[in-house]
Specification:
The chain is an alpha+beta fold. It is built from 15 helices and 9 strands. Helices cover 66% and strands 8% of the residues. Helix 8 packs across helix 11 and helix 13 runs antiparallel to helix 14. The chain is elongated, with a radius of gyration of 59 Å. The chain starts with a helix and ends with a helix. InterPro entries: EF-hand_SWAP70_N, PH-like_dom_sf, PH_domain, PH_SWAP70.
């Protein structure tokens, strides 16, 4: 419940700080006690958190208090005592965050146009609350910014620009410790790290990261589920979360059909193909078992592994992977910070010890100078009393030599200690540099490992794509060869048919030529016959002209009625007929 309270406080902090502040930086008591403030900060929180609202407690809490909401009677103590302590976790987190977002977005969201929609900005704001540090005012450190941008870039299917982010990180570290929620929204909405991507791709990537980090969606997708009563197979959209698998009619999540409650006693195992269904696996719970069919073997293995990992986490009592990773990143940052502070403390101690040694050396030098001054004074006295105190002087001289030797030995020893101390300081400085280089090498090794892993994945995808493309080209080439052979055969058949038609046409042409020649010959013959007949006719007309009484050429008859003979119509007139009758009778009489 402590972690849940911290998550709620981050969202409420945004809504709380979005209220109008007075000159002292406090929300006035009159505002909080007014109907609008009470409705926004109390009633709405109680509604979305499913906590009974007690307006009387709010009035009693602020009675006779002039110190504002940060005092013992302020709004935050009221929030902790009367609202947050009663939260049970049975509320819609998205609806709660949306209510807090509504109160603070209008005032804080940038007015400049962004490449993301308001809905995407809301999701980035919720992700910020999840990844931000547990101190106020809330900020997100560069390491978490890098983690979030990498997740979004991977979801877009683009390559991560580490060098570009390093330049941005250096510029950021020189000015501040991290970014606020609104600065993070501006950074993602500016498209600085998503150049070349359209709005829809960026929106889908933000939604995927939101589902994973905020909604705890570990995996989702379409699969077939066997019914418990009718035993029929229906396609459902499955959503895997840390302790439950929900399945819906479609991916819009509007029509929920049921849940599979997961605990440490659940297990998942693969099934052989049966009833015409492939890629089967079974989820066993205490009260029910569920048979599910994936679309292919890869999806089947991914789902089995994801569900088994979730069950193992439930057995171990561990949080979801992304929350555990966030906690490890925080612990690593705290460890590095503690090590850095320890190094700084040691350096300060070394500096203090160095200063102490310098002071000691200065004291020894002054002692030597004082001793030399005393020796000079004594030397002067010795010269003055040389005659009287010759023996004593000799003794004093020997003693002085011994003192000087001891002092020189002490100076040499102090100098040696100082040299050793300076050598130790240099070694510690070198050790500090080596430690920094080791940390940089470790960081570079991690980046190289991530780069190699992405490169291997990209090369594998390219090899798969090229292999599929080569198979496609080979199939197209075979189809082209088959089509070419068929077209070649068809063209050969057409050529043969055309050659046969040409031969037939040639034969017909030759036949027509022969018939033309024969017709020409016949024409010549007919022409000759016509000429002969014309000549004959001409001679015959001459003969008729001499024997006009015997034969008369047929000419157009008169308009008088013609006579009819036994042989048909005749072109004779009555006079001619009478003439012919007399001629016939005369010939008959002569013959008798």
């Amino acid at each position: 419940m402590v972690g849940l309270k911290e998550e709620l406080l981050k969202s409420i902090w945004h809504a709380f700080t979005a209220l109008d502040l007075d000159r002292s930086g406090k929300v006035s008591k009159s505002q909080l006690k007014a109907s609008g403030g009470r409705r926004v900060l109390s009633h709405n929180l109680c509604t979305v958190l499913n906590v009974p609202h007690d307006p009387v407690a709010l009035e009693e809490h602020f009675r006779d208090d002039d110190e504002g909401p940060v005092s013992n009677q302020g709004y935050m103590p009221y929030l902790n005592k009367f609202i947050l302590e009663k939260v049970q976790g049975n509320f819609d987190k998205v609806e709660f965050n949306r209510m807090c977002w509504t109160l603070c977005a209008k005032k804080n969201l940038s007015k400049s146009p962004l490449l993301i929609s308001d809905e995407d900005a809301f999701k980035v704001w919720v992700i910020f609350n999840f990844l931000s540090e547990d101190k106020y005012p809330l900020i997100i450190v560069p390491e978490e910014i890098e983690y979030l941008l990498k997740k979004i870039t991977e979801a877009m299917g683009a390559g991560w620009q580490q060098e570009q982010f390093d330049h941005y990180k250096i510029a950021l570290n020189t000015s501040r410790e991290g970014l606020s929620a609104w600065e993070l929204i501006d950074l993602i909405g500016s498209g600085q790290f998503s150049k070349g991507m359209d709005r829809q791709t960026v929106s889908m990537a933000i939604n995927e990261v939101f589902n994973e980090l905020i909604l705890d969606v570990l995996k989702q997708g379409y699969m077939l589920k066997k019914g418990h009563k009718r035993k029929n197979w229906m396609e459902r959209w499955f959503v895997l979360k840390p302790n439950i698998i929900s399945y819906y009619v479609s991916e819009d999540l509007k029509d929920k059909k049921g849940d599979i409650i997961l605990d440490g006693n659940c297990c998942v195992e693969a099934l052989p193909d049966k009833d015409g269904k492939k890629c089967l696996f079974l989820i066993k719970c205490l009260d029910k078992t569920f048979e599910i069919s994936a679309s292919d073997k890869k999806k089947k293995q991914e789902w089995i592994q994801a569900i088994q990992t979730t069950v193992n986490l439930l057995r171990a009592g561990s949080p979801p992977p992304h929350k555990e990773a966030r906690q490890k990143r925080k612990e690593l940052r705290q460890k590095l910070l503690a090590e850095q502070e320890e190094l700084e403390r040691q350096m300060k101690e070394l500096q203090a010890a160095n200063e102490n040694k310098q002071k000691e050396l200065e004291t020894v030098r002054k002692q030597l100078e004082a001793a030399a001054a005393r020796a000079a004074e004594e030397e002067k006295k010795r010269l003055q009393t040389q005659v009287e105190l010759q023996d004593r002087f000799s003794l004093e001289l020997e003693r002085e030599k011994m003192v000087r030797q001891k002092m020189e030995e002490q100076v040499a020893q102090k100098s040696s200690e100082l040299e050793q101390y300076l050598q130790r300081v240099r070694e510690l400085e070198e050790m500090y540099k080596q430690l920094q280089e080791a940390l940089e090498d470790e960081k570079q090794a991690r980046q190289d490992e991530e780069t190699v892993r992405k490169l291997q994945a990209r090369l594998l995808e390219e090899e798969t794509a090229k292999r599929a493309e080569l198979e496609k080209w080979h199939l197209q080439q075979q189809q082209t060869i088959q089509m070419t052979e068929a077209e070649k055969q068809e063209l050969e058949n057409q050529r043969m048919m055309k050659e046969q038609a040409l031969q037939v046409a040639m034969q017909q042409l030759k036949q027509l030529e022969m018939e033309r020649k024969e017709a020409l010959e016949q024409y010549e013959e007919v022409k000759k016959k016509l000429e002969t007949a014309a000549n004959n006719t001409k001679s015959w007309k001459d003969k008729v002209a001499h024997h006009e009484g015997l034969i008369r050429l047929i000419e157009p008859g008169s308009k008088n009625p013609h006579l009819i003979t036994n042989w048909g119509p005749a072109a004779f007139t009555e006079a001619e007929l009478e003439e012919r009758q007399r001629s016939w009778k005369g010939k008959k009489a002569t013959s008798e």
